[in-house]
Amino acid sequence: MAQQIFPGRYTADPERESVTVFLIGMRANRWWKVGTVGRVAAAMPRMLQHLAADPSAGMLGYEQWFGRTTMLLSYWESPEHLRRFAADRESPHLAPWRRFMKELAGTGDVGVWHETYQVPADSIEVVYNGMPLFGLAKATAHVPIGAGTNTAKQRMGRTAHRGAGSNIPAGR
Asked: N or C: less crowded end of the chain, CB within 10 Å?
């Protein structure tokens, strides 16, 4: 499937005060236990389908990479949205997590990890050059770089709700 490429330079405008960045992944420590690795990996597509069907859950978008160590980079409205999803008995996360902890935690067969960051909008700097929609711009707003956003310093100093083309310094 071909993706539309956007020639030129673009940035993201999260249009919010902050973005919650959540990285999660797994590592096949014992690749020959392919069945075990597959069962752990199979839980993620169900979670992503669930989140895509329910925008109120708070996930804004994601990117993923596959290999011996897999990684999913996701953007969320808030840490509260992320925690609510993780603890929701009706969501497809809690049961697989409990099963992993009961059956696989401590065996060393499959490793799992996650990292969560709460990033203020005025601390975000992104640029995409000749790329399809990707990352934070895909999850929020994809805007051309122009006056006031030409440099990394200008992009990082922006505050939420000012618009990507604004050249108003942060804090004004």
From this structure: N
Report the candidate in 80, 172, 79, 162 with the shortest Cα–Cα distance to residue 124. Answer: 162
* pTM of this structure: 0.86
Per DSSP, helices labelled H in 6-112 are 34-41, 43-53, 79-87, 94-103
C-alpha to C-alpha distance for 46 and 21, rounded to whole angstroms: 20
Backbone φ and ψ for 21, nearest 5 degrees, come out as -105, 125
**pLDDT classification of 2: cutoffs 50, 70, 90:** confident
Counting the structural domains of the chain, the total is 1
Residue 171 lies in a domain: no
Kindly report, residue by residue over 33-76, the tens digit of the pLDDT.
999 999 999 999 999 999 999 999 999 999 999 999 999 999 99
Domain that holds residue 14: 7-164
User: CA 121, CA 161: separation in Å to the nearest integer?
Assistant: 10
The tokens for 88 are: 């929701």
Q: Single out the residue of 114, 99, 113, 102 nearest to residue 29, CA to CA.
A: 113
